[in-house]
Amino acid sequence: MLAGSLVFFISKRNVGVENINWFFSLLIFLFFITPDNHDLTLFSVVLTVFLTSVLILNVKNGAFLFGFLTNSKIVEVGLISYALYLTHQPILVFYRYVFDQEIKIVDVLFILPFIYVVSYLLNRYIENPFRRLEISKSIQISFFLFIFIVGYIFSLVLNNGFDNREAFKLLKDYQNVEYRRLSSSTVGLTIEKRPQEQCINRTVESSCNFGPPYKIITVGDSFAGVFDYSLYEALSGKNIRVLTYEQCPLLDKPYWFGSVPECWEINKSRWSFLKNTHPTTILVGTNFSQFYRGKSKEINPNFDDIYDSFTSSIKMLINLGHKPIILLQPPNPNIDVRSKMIGATYQLDSVLKKTYDAKSTSHIDNDIMRGLASIKGVEIINLNNIFCDGQSCLIINEKGGLFNQQDHLSYQGVQMVLPYIKMD
């Protein structure tokens, strides 16, 4: 709306650019500075609106571009543009469904003429004759309502009452990041004393408590938090305590990461709780890549300092009688899996298949395992062994995307790991 208003304002004052060559130069330039990421929706919309506005302002009678756009063949395409708009997406979806593959450049040579022919026939034998009919508005509305009802009933029959709800379930799985999914009817508090419904980022004293007794306690940062909801679900909403806090792994020294200097206060409260809790299974999830950039009030610790604090913490859990299960580093996806899955919500058949596009993080595992391997009584879950085939790792399988926000596991990703978690 804003762009249209500006175009109208400028055109009324005869402001324009006489030479259109700069328009094509700008188009080429913007093509090469396209952001290097996989979520370009906003960029594409802004670019399209901007270039369309420039195009409208510079189309003048007598110019080459004016002659091109008023050519009879181009005008013919414009006349069937609405039919093209209506038919192109169903045809593309139908193609992916029938051939069970993504559309390649070679396929376009066949698909584009087919879309054009269908649109032409639709325009000539349905759209134009219908426009020429003199039908009252009430009859038109009744006709379209009838078509809608018949189409809806047909869809119900075709899909067995919409029993196949994968698209809606997928949207639900991606409504939020997985580590913030679990909440409690009992509102907790953050360390700043603010109300907190989600289970993560609460003080230990007000943490989500679905026991005792406890079959499992989740401890660590958001890499542990992604398991909170699924474990709660698997345990039917009981026998679990949640002590997860973003960017706050379990340590026994006053180290912290990112923007969470309160981590040491959280860990002190964790230890106070764990020392007075009946021995149980402790699921320890940690973003070990943080260990390379730790912080402290005094001298910033190096990797070895933080690693020693972590291994000391695991030994302390064992000495307290607990059974620690350590989740190693998840693989690192090369793309934004969340954006890919949401973008393909209604074309799931073309996406829900094994897709390998993540890098193994076994080099981080090797750094972590050099001391943990010698500790008796600790169980290790190697996520790279679960998700990877060599250095190439799964990001999507037949049930959905396996990651939700960078290298955080999604609900479906967690389901792949749950069988390896043995609780008391």
CATH topology of the largest domain: Rossmann fold
- Helical residue percent band: 40-55%
Sheet with most strands: 6 strands, mixed
How many structural domains are formed by the residues? Answer: 2
CA-to-CA gap between the ends? 61 Å
Low-confidence stretches: 16-20, 36-40
For the record, the CATH architecture of the largest domain stands as 3-Layer(aba) Sandwich
Quaternary: single chain
Helix and strand pattern: HHHHHHHHHEEEEHHEHEHEEHEHEHEEEH
Radius of gyration, in Å, reads 29 Å
Strand content: 5-15%
Overall pLDDT: 84
Overall outline: elongated
- CATH domain class of the largest domain: Alpha Beta
Number of helices: 17
> Which structural class do the helices and strands define?
alpha/beta
